[in-house]
Amino acid sequence: MVKTLYVGNLPWNAKEQELAQFFEGFAPVVSARVISDQETGRSKGFGFVEVADEDAEKVVKTAHGASFNDRNLIVNEARPKAKS
């Protein structure tokens, strides 16, 4: 099983590949997504990284506050998507 982690305070120019590579330094990454505005295509400044369940807690503890392209990341376990 995998856990999805919320990653906030991303630089506006962050790319999914860069995000995945950064988090590979903490644990193997299943996937990484940077969320973009649908109309402008500009990053919204946050994304999600999926890691194995057993790695999630360690990744949150070590990556939260870590510097990524001169920005201190906010990392925590993602909340389930709200149903509309």
Description:
The chain is built from two helices and six strands, in the order E-H-E-E-H-E-E-E. The mean pLDDT is 95. It has helices at 16-24, 53-63, and strands spanning 2-8, 29-36, 43-52, 67-68, 71-72, 74-77. The strands form two sheets. The protein has a four-stranded antiparallel sheet with strand order 2-3-1-6. The protein has a single domain (2-73), classed as 2-Layer Sandwich (Alpha-Beta Plaits). Strand 4 and strand 5 (71-72) form a beta hairpin. The protein has 84 residues and is α+β, with helices and mostly antiparallel strands. Helices cover 24% and strands 39% of the residues.
Helix-strand layout with pairing:
Elements: E1 2-8, H1 16-24, E2 29-36, E3 43-52, H2 53-63, E4 67-68, E5 71-72, E6 74-77
Antiparallel strand pairs: 1-3, 1-6, 2-3, 4-5
Task: List the defining traits of the structure above.
4-stranded antiparallel β-sheet; 24% helix; 6 strands; Alpha-Beta Plaits; two-stranded antiparallel ribbon; alpha+beta; 39% strand; 84 residues
CATH architecture annotation:
2-Layer Sandwich
Task: Sketch the topology as an H/E string, one letter per element.
Answer: EHEEHEEE
In angstroms, what separates the terminal alpha carbons?
25 Å
Rounded average pLDDT: 95
| The CATH C-level class name | Alpha Beta
Concise structural overview:
This protein is of the alpha+beta class and 84 residues long.
